[in-house]
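User: Second chain of the day. Same drill as before.
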Amino acid sequence: MAGTNKNQLIVLGAGWLGQPLCLQQLAKGWDVQGTHRSAEHQHAFQRQLVFADEQLVHQLDLHNAWWVCAIPPRSRHADSHYLATLKLAIELAGIMNAKGFLLCSSTAVYDQDNLTYTEQSEIKASTARQQPLVDAEQLVLNAGGKVLRLGGLIGPEREPGRFVAGKELQSSRMQTVNMVQQQDVINAIVTVLDNWQVAAPIYNIVNPAHPSKADYYQQKCQQYGTTPPTFTRDESAERIIDGSAIESLGFNYQFAI
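Assistant: Same format as last time:
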């Protein structure tokens, strides 16, 4: 695939994850447009995209681009319009001759049983949180797109030593964590775009380290001098999301959780 085929990118939801992706690819010489809801823009790459009156109001005009949807599935901004927005975005991507459509989903799509989950694991979708994720993934896969199931996201302004400090967590202290650092996710997105023709339809993006929540959060709280959280339970609970499949594309997890 020639380099000119890869130099345009549209990121839906240029927020905590999408904006640094935009900035990185801009620095590499790509043409980039990243969406947010406002019509006022701080950055030249920003474009408005909002769901209103059952249609998309948007300022996108990059044709033959890669599309990445980084709108958080449970985002307050997405409200109940997440699936409708996604459906219309896929249609718009087709009209604009998108090279491919990549959805950032979540490992919350998997069941809560204490098992090791791979991309081939059956999903029962028995909870209210799972079904919208399954529906969103199916929309993208049916349109020939691909899906990244992201673990718990950490990075700038999302430091575990701060956001769990002093809280009582409704889980077992022995529960394993399935986390991933922001830059690893960005690198994974670019890896899939670079290897689109041979990439699988779905990849888990989760750091290979799976310490217990008690050990993990205690260490993080020590770093920040904050009070470790407490837990409501202490039974063994090893629910592990295996994020190794993408390594077959030459990707490596580089950032510690």
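Residues 83 and 136 are 6 Å apart (CA to CA).

User: Great, on to the next one.
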